[in-house]
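User: structure tokens for this one?
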Amino acid sequence: MSSIYSVKLGKIIKEFGLEVLRGGTGYENRAIETEDVNRPGLQLTGFFDYFDPSRLQVIGKVETTYLTGLTPEARRESFERLLSQDITALIITRGIDPFPECMEMAERYDRTVLRSQETTSALMSTLIASLKSYLSPQITRHGVLVDVYGEGVLLLGESGVGKSETAIELVKRGHRLIADDAVEIKRTAAMNLMGTAPELIRHYIELRGIGVIDVRRLFGMSAVKDEAVIDMVINLEQWKDGALYDRLGLEELYTTILDVQVPSLTVPVKPGRNLAVIVEVAAMNNRHKKMGYNAALEFTKQINKHFDQAMSAQLEQQ
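Assistant:
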């Protein structure tokens, strides 16, 4: 699957501890733009229909066993057919020594050959998962992301509305900060939204009148978290007299980010409101909803039942 995002081959080599048997020209900066990985068994036999050279090519024990049964001339032809394609890299698993014909063709066509000590299935599964993460759609939003009772809460609102102040109060109450000011949001394969902070400002928070503080050093490691799934969005806005705000919570509202709908609330801000407590209650209530309990619906049912009983009693008296 193609993506507008990319990751450099050098980053993958470092992450997976791959041994560079031969590096093509500028191989570390070679961009990987597809999350798919290919085992070129059919290509080694000469079948190249629907072959995508942009995928990482992985050779394991099965392919090696097949190639071992060929003559050196046939192996050379197989590798020439494969490596004449503009492949990103060829990875040999299980620490298997490369065939001389493979290195010969890699030299001729300036291809990158890597080696892993992992089994083929283990390498491919983790490699695909890593590529999916790197190539997932992503966006940066101005806001604050906190982990409250295990719920990832994204606080949005205009600058100065009190997002950072609410976050620091939540941290003091035992919750964890993920990101302040800028939240990098990535859509995962499971259609969840994963939020994190840019590396430069991770674990820092800005408080007007005080400045920038390091939450990790001031409150300890338990006060921060590197990333979290965004379970709900809370929009903070200045209280507007005459505006209609939801009193029961029956209306289900959602915010769409990267084509994923996330439950959202709008909380008006004015002096005297304890926003940290409100966010805590909102997070617990959201978790209850996911577990099948909706307090607003239960309250409405009780009210309706009360009125039905009252009406029935009135009709009996007539």
